[in-house]
Amino acid sequence: MKHYKTLAAFLDYMQLPRPEHPMLSVMVAKDNDYLPCPRESSPPISTDCYSISLKKIMHGELNYGRTKYDFTNGALIFIAPRQVLQWDSSFIFDQKGFSINFHEDFLKGTDLAQKIKKYSFFSYAANEALHLSPKEEKQIESIVENIESEYQNNQDAFSKDIIISQLDTLLKYANRFYERQFLNRKELSHSLLEQFNQELNRYFESGQLQEKGIPSIEQLAEKMLVSQRYLSDTLKKETGKTTTEHLQLRLIDEAKNVLLQPNKSISEVAYELGFEYPPYFSRLFKKKAGISPTEYRALYKMN
């Protein structure tokens, strides 16, 4: 897999205009123009750059797996350094919007260098993009206008600080708008929770728990065709619990059934549920159930 360490090398590969700044590129489609189209297809690649793009597809379609996505109303896509990128000819389209690309070192020595790592939407997949309302789109575009103005005009000692301040504002708005998207897409959120529980049930009922151990959240998300971060953020907004908490509760629920088999020790129950270390199982059970596995078993016998 090819990795591009500089912004210029990455943009050259993408067949896009060279940047005005060695660590920053800003491209905006104005009036009747379209954004420059990147190369039609690419094997897996990665870069040391961040990318923030507003896609408004005017002609053509974006395919993600077997699903077509409507980006006409504008969708923000975020890409972080060292994420693997790959696409084919299904990405051929004319689009409006903007594309901001910057090397991670552009943020060095600023507060944003650490803050940007906390925005989980940089780990979302293409089909989990932020869909903007017309009003939100205008707010984002006004910020990008300020960034482009500093980028295109004669840059001075203040330009970088101003650009980074505007990037910080853009990301704060994106975070707010994602919160709105999660709240407004209750049907999707509920559907993801159902899918998550169904995947867990299939895993448990097929005997994979005993054979392969406790599934990772990444495994479950992959089965559901969503990114791990998007799944976790969606369930957190919908239920107040993370994917890990949902998985743990399901394991404890299963443990209560197995504990009622008197011929099995606590350690045997732990191993059967995929726990490598019985003491960890006992601590988790007490944390979630309020009593230890031994106390639970004794309580059931009393009743």
Brief sketch in words of this structure:
This is Transcriptional regulator. The protein is α+β, with helices and mostly antiparallel strands and 303 residues long.
Describe the structure.
This protein has 2 domains: about 1-185, Jelly Rolls; about 185-300, Arc Repressor Mutant, subunit A (Orthogonal Bundle), CATH 1.10.10. The protein starts with a strand and ends with a helix. It is α+β, with helices and mostly antiparallel strands and about 300 residues long. The longest helix has 26 residues, at about 160-185. A 5-stranded antiparallel beta sheet has the order 2-9-4-7-10. The chain has a 3-stranded mixed beta sheet with strand order 1-3-8. A two-stranded antiparallel sheet has the order 5-6. Strand 5 (about 60-65) and strand 6 form a beta hairpin. It contains 12 helices and 10 strands. Helix 5 packs across helix 7 (about 215-225) and helix 10 (about 265-270) crosses helix 11 (about 280-290). The radius of gyration is 24 Å and the shape is elongated. This is Transcriptional regulator. Keywords: DNA-binding, Transcription, Transcription regulation. GO terms for molecular function: DNA-binding transcription factor activity; sequence-specific DNA binding.
Averaged pLDDT: 86
Secondary-structure element order, as H and E? EHEEEEEEEEHEHHHHHHHHHH
How much of the sequence is in beta strands?
15-25%
Domains, number: 2
N/C terminus separation:
61 Å
Organism: Pseudalgibacter alginicilyticus
Protein name: Transcriptional regulator
Keywords: DNA-binding, Transcription, Transcription regulation
InterPro entries: Homeodomain-like_sf (IPR009057), HTH_AraC (IPR018060), Tscrpt_reg_AraC-type_HTH (IPR020449)
